Amino acid sequence: MKAVMITYNEVLSERLIHLLDELELRGFTRWNGVQGRGTTTGEPHMGNHIWPSLNGAMYVVVEDEQLDAFFDALSELDAQGRGLRAFVSPVERAI
Amino acid sequence: MNIFRLAVSRPIATSMVFIAIMVFGIYSYIRLPVDLFPEVDSPIISVITSYEGAGALEVERNVTEHLESVLGTTPELLEITSTSMDNVSVVTLEFNGGANMDEATNNVRDRLGQAEFLLPDDVNDPILQKFDASAIPVVIYSVTADESYPELEQIIDDYIVNPLNRISGVGDVSVTGAPSREVQVVLDPERLRAYNLDVPQIAQALQAENISSPAGRVDLGTESYNLRVNTEFRSVDDIGGVIVANYQGRQVTLDQVASIREGFADEDAISRVNGRQGLTFAVQKQTEANTVEVSERVMAQMPAIAESLPDDVEMTLIIDTSDFIVDAINNLSSVLFYAVVFVVLVVLIFLRQWRATIVIAATIPVSLIVGFIYLTLVGSTLNMISLSSLSIALGMVVDDAIVVLENIMQHIERGSTPREAAIHGTGEVGVAVVATTLTVVAVFLPLTFLEGQTGVWFGQLGAIVVVTVVTSTVAALTLTPMMGSLMMKPVDEKGRGPLKALARGIDKGLRGIEAVYRGALGVAVRFRKTTMLAALAVFGLSVALVPRVGTEFMPISDDGFVTVSGELETSRSLEYTSEVVTRLEAQITEEVPELKRLNSTSGTSGSMFGGVGGGKNEFQLRMELIDQDDRERSVFEVADQVRGIMAGTPEIVTSTVTAGNSGGAGSAQPVAVEIRGFNLEQTTALARDLAEHMEGIEGTRDVNLSRGESRPEFEIIFDRERLSDFGLTSAQVAQVVRGNIAGQTATIFRRDGDEYDVVLRYAEGERSSLEQVREMTVNTPSGARVRLEDLGEIKEFMVPPNIERIDRERMLTVSAGIEGRPLNLVMEDVREWVDAQNLPPQIAITYGGDFQEQQESFQDLFLILALSLILVYLVMAGQFESLKEPFVIMFSIPFAFTGVILALLITNTPLSVIGLIGAIILVGIVVKNAIVLIDYIKLLQGRGQPIFEAIVDGSVSRLRPVLMTTLTTILAMIPLALEIGEGAELWKPMAISVIGGLSFSTVVTLIIVPVLYGMFERNAKTETGGMT
Question: Is B326 a member of any domain?
């Protein structure tokens, strides 16, 4: 099992859910309206007057064989230029 | 969650809220009554007391002074003035602006009760009169007749008044000018002497024989009957049969000593319409009724009424108040319409998208309709002030939506999805939008604190603008992003067709302007000190121009009416006056081609709306001109011609020609110098000198003295010893003489439910020379007869026809109209002369009229201006969490005033109260631009841009919204500035001030404010958009 941590521009929320549905991935955990900024050039998303936009964050755990398709789909979504980052890490135990 | 996030994520809920507002607004609009002006509780109460047969001096001494001393202690009283003239005393009480008038009326009534025993016995009870806006007649008609004239009053009663009273909404129909019928008992002095009778005796006999009184009950068996004594006259002949004396055993009946006839009381006034003598009747509405509807219903009834009248009776409409209202409302509605068109065009040009235009235009109905809801909730009406206020607010209600949507579109152009752009775009400018609205509120809210006349006008303006602008901000933060997220899409500039080409052209032009602005700002930011010095020089120059701007109270508009009040030599009879007026009418009708209608009243100087008194030598002419579009000359030019006609008529001693009105405000003459002092001769002489000097001052018209020419009066001076020898008192003799000449009302004759006075009097031929007066006899208690000339002598005196007082001091006013020269300059000349006079200590001079009103109003308004400036600073300091930035932003205000001064000078408009209001409004509007600039510059700084780069980039990126909001505000005012029709023209000076001030200050703001910000913030650390 792999865990995928996704932070994304809030506007992608609905498209992300749609994407999960298409890949028949049921489980996810989501935080709406989180702040953050990119490591190099990424625009800050602070939800304030100066940087009004906000991010969302999503934690999805997938089976190893599902990962590639999922990750490709995420890259495709990122290519639209709305701002999306995904980090994959192994899941060692789960209940 | 932010309000705009919520709105964007729940578009249906948002729509429903606004639809609910619209529905409620439309409901309010339908129920709103229409009227000309907001309801005013006038702080003035007049006490009118008639004292038949007394001259001005006696009225002053016996009535006015007593009333003044009693009424002078009324609480909340501001000023007490009075006029004493022949037969009538008018005491006018002016209360403080905020006084409760119901309470004041009760207080006055209580005090009048105390005054009663101080007044002479034959004084009629004082009448209280309050000005009530709903008492202004809805329509006034005149009725003329030839052979039916004697029965005219009856005809009007039966055929006109009764049917009209049945119409719903009609409160009262009052007929004026009707000759009142009376039964005249014309006595023959010879015969009276023969039977040893005098007037009081006969009066007593008539009273005793004309009674109806209950005498108790009589029980007859089981029935009970009322018993009554009734000797009331059943016909005029009955009166003649009354036995008035027993003379040597013979009964003397009244018809033996007098002839009895039905006739008309002496007329006090003759009114004529288009040359024919007639009466007028006025229809008043019930307080809560709608003027326009009542007028329509009355008009609908009129043809049927006209049909029913005898052939020679003709009705002419003199005034239809609803005409003004309908015209004014229509005009203002078209002003509103033009404003909407202009605003929509500006948005379309700048944003080049139908969708964007629709999104922004959507805020217009929403905001305006809330204005209607407000009017309904406070129980006001749809009137000239509220409609003008709406059109003034119109330019501002789209501003917030423009700023928001413009930013949303920039985000879309940079590639965001509409939904994302809506949230981000609104978020970026949300603070600025709220701040700008708060500053506008800070300026308009204090207007609602104004009192008096200016309070009526501008209180509603303030309230409506606050309500609509706050609503527009709410809409801009919810409705605009919501609609934007659903409707907006990137501008497609690539398509073909002329429209697309035009859009590209416009965009190219705007980019060009932006490039020029960027260049200019770059230079200015580099040479900051030079730029600031240049700006200060411009401001200093404009301050130097201030003395050249004239001032006035209220602008005068061409409403097509010319009024003349004039006076012939004193002691002229009514017939003579009427004859002169007839000639004048003919001359005016011939020489003034623009004349539509002319009516006159001879024998009074009072107005149609219930004037009081006036000598028989006075007259009033009222001319109505044809529509403004159909004539070339203005009402002022016509008035000048009429002045020429008056000057060319030798019989006229003084005349005042007034043209146009100042929209119901201030009926006083512009220049009024009040001379206070007890000595009549001294003050009159000074007034004459002043009047003569005033005529020589440039720009004055119709110089007038309020105290009429003194006229001769005869006075009987009794020899008290002789009186006492004969066992008589002055009062007894006075009563006899008064009965002989003025007449004595003995009793009342009733017929068919009407009552007629029975008046005893000598035949006219027996009381028309001094000789005959001297020959009049008085019966002494011993039964002897003594002639008046044996009791004293008759002397001639000169007395003024009227005596005015202010604060219980005698006063007279020298007044003048002005034309072609501002009021302040004329007043300077007047003051110069007054100051040069060596006044005795018992004479004091004060200034009244428009000048005083203007001074008071200006004082109030300057206070409001100061208050607004402070409030605006407070709001911005709070908003920006900074003490320095608001200061920078407020630097745009002085340049707005520079613009106002220049605009007034260029258009040659004097600064009036209305213009000054424009200047105050500007405070709120001009800082909006600066706020938008500074806020965005700070935002860019916060995102890490170096200060000067942020200044230039931020300013350039805000150029379009600043230009758009400025243009919409200016263009919304243009219909007002161009004087399109009645009702709008009053606001012209304000529109000129705002347009001038706003255009000038915007140009300056775009350069000065960023430069100044640079100077102040160069070294300051700004907060970055860190983790908050």
Answer: no
